[in-house]
């Protein structure tokens, strides 16, 4: 694996019917966490490596969770995160909105309680140097993840050029294959995201399209269930409060805050700063706006996503997201 591939985070849910050996190992670790001698049962929050989730780890470093049962669990990818949540080994998880939709098919009382970030340029279509326009993708090989995030961006980019998926050769690549496939010329373009965006552009790739052209469509959220929320109300509120405390610290002390993130993200400061330029971090007022109302604005986007996922055969059963969004656990604005 190349250095770039080793740096890549995973945001997509790789749909696997059975727990893999790696997933089983992670669940064993979570069982051990649950068995530790805590004054309260641990409130385990699963994440993978993605800049939008760094607020939780920043909050932890600021002692926002000190004395609480909150335990942040970094997992290699969202396959493990979602499998652990379904197995009852996590109380909450950081996911993309399409992953939340997939989980809602299995967790009927799933709740979206926080919006971490909205992609605004971090997700991109990049091409080899000889391809300079979207129209030139006709007949070309495009690497893309099998989840909805990749499909959203690819469909939007192709539509902007008057193309359809039938006009290109789509190669489904797992996230750890993006850079290697691109740099070894196995594909002519790839749908990817930060920090790989910056890595490939530094090596001469052309930026053809990015998520700033489709604002509001690619979103990362915190999910739990209604049962867990009502069994752990104060802990859930403290977790969410910590996120907003971290955002304030990031705004007031950006260099200090980002310095603490470079090790976890395995990125130099310059590239980390570039990565943050590609996402929006909704504040408390914006979170209230997105998660409440009739309908909640985020529900409107979710309806679009559900239809897309159904058309792409990404859902194996109907999903009703009507009651999944709540601002009840947010601090008052």
User: What is the strand arrangement across the widest sheet?
Assistant: 2-1-3-10-4-11
CATH H level, superfamily name of the largest domain: Periplasmic binding protein-like II
Quaternary class: single chain
Low-confidence stretches: 1-10, 12-23
CATH fold name of the largest domain, please?
A: D-Maltodextrin-Binding Protein, domain 2
- In the CATH classification, which architecture of the largest domain applies? 3-Layer(aba) Sandwich
Mean pLDDT: 87
Query: Structural class of the helices, strands and pairings?
Result: alpha/beta
Distance between the termini: 46 Å
The portion of residues forming beta strands comes to: 15-25%
Query: Which bin fits the share of residues in helices?
Result: 40-55%
Main beta sheet, described? 6 strands, mixed
Tally of discrete structural domains = 2
Q: What does the model show?
A:
With 333 residues, the protein is of the alpha/beta class. It folds into 2 domains: 212 residues, D-Maltodextrin-Binding Protein, domain 2; 91 residues, D-Maltodextrin-Binding Protein, domain 2 (3-Layer(aba) Sandwich), CATH 3.40.190. Helices cover 42% and strands 17% of the residues. It contains 14 helices and 11 strands. The strands form 2 sheets. The protein has a 6-stranded mixed beta sheet, sandwiched between helices. β1, α3 and β2 form a beta-alpha-beta unit. α2 crosses α4 and α10 crosses α11. The N terminus is likely disordered.
